[in-house]
Amino acid sequence: MFGYFGITPMGLVGAAWATVIALCYRTVRLAIPLLMPSFHDLYHTRETWRPSWSHIADLFRVGMPVALQWTSEILVWTLFVSVLIGRFFGTADLIATNATWQYLRLAFLPTVGVGQSLTALVGKAIGAGDTERAMRDTRFAAILTVVYMGAIAVFYAAAGSWLIGLFSEDLEVIRVGRWVMVCAAAFQIFDALAITYVSALRGAGDTFIPSIFLSVSLWVVVIGAGWGIAVLFPGLRSIGPWMAAAALIMLTSFFLWWRWSCGAWRKLDIFRAATAD
After folding, report:
1. Which end of the chain is more exposed for a tag (fewer CB within 10 A), N or C?
2. Phi and psi, residue 272, nearest 5°
3. Is the pLDDT of residue 274 over 50?
């Protein structure tokens, strides 16, 4: 991008090429151990490459609801930022919101990483027939993410003005951003629980009902309620839609906790097989 080490500066084109190179490297890096003799001796990776259409169908059945949910999330949060914040309230609120999003990534991306690990652990435990282990792993992940995001919440609430000030020196942006950061702090613990329990449910193959609930609630609460607050209470400015976003995450965390606790996932058989060979 910037022309270091004698390379001609390429700007965004350079970033695009770097992304392609990184993806190619990752593919080769993962393929090499997959084909190594030691790995083949354990998992017969050179002999089991042929497609299994029944298992592919099962993967679509489990994975498609999650894919649709992610699509809905992208659309909803794009509308949230560009329309509910940008068009309703203007530049200062938009800058404050975008700055807050950058800080939110510091909170939820590590938690998403823990969630992906939990998905694998829950799936492995259920595959071994050990549902108690799946519950123990989920409790541990919940405690870990709540402690982490709880600490983040305290930091956001206490230092919101300073954090927004790192992005902009505009006093109006800092004033609005401080309250946006308070809203963000309010839902951090709930976000930790939501990410943890949705990850555990995915590991158990319970994706359809949680994904439908999340997709519908995103449109109803974030877009519907957020738009209503923006219209009826314009004096709240961007804090109104952010309050709707906080309410959504709180509602989601309670639903996903209930879904996991009720144990419906125990009755699922992802690949409809009684035993594993």
Report:
1. C
2. 50, 45
3. no
How many Å apart are CA 238 and CA 220, to the nearest integer? 18
Tokens (6 digits) for 272: 């409809």
Q: Quote the longest CA-to-CA distance of the chain.
A: 67
Using CA atoms, how far apart are residues 224 and 15, in angstroms rounded to an integer? 37
Euclidean distance between CA atoms 98 and 152, whole angstroms: 18
Runs of H (alpha helix) within 166-236:
171-186, 188-203, 208-217, 226-232
Q: State the Cα torsion 269-118-220-97 to the nearest 10°.
A: -160
Q: Which residue has the tokens 């989920």?
A: 138
* C-alpha span between 117 and 233 (Å, rounded): 42
The pTM of the full predicted model, rounded to 2 decimals, is 0.81
Instruction: Assess contact for 106 and 152: CB atoms under 8 A.
Output: yes
Mind spelling out the 3-state secondary structure of 139-185?
Answer: HHHHHHHHHHHHHHHHHHHHHHHHHHHCCCCCHHHHHHHHHHHHHHH
Burial level of 33, CB count in 10 A (0-12/13-18/19+)?
Answer: exposed
Residues contacting residue 258 through CB under 8 Å, at least 6 positions apart: none
What percentage of the chain reaches a pLDDT higher than 90? 55
Residue 43 neighbours by CB under 8 Å, 6+ apart: none
Query: Which residue is listed with tokens 């894919």?
Result: 67
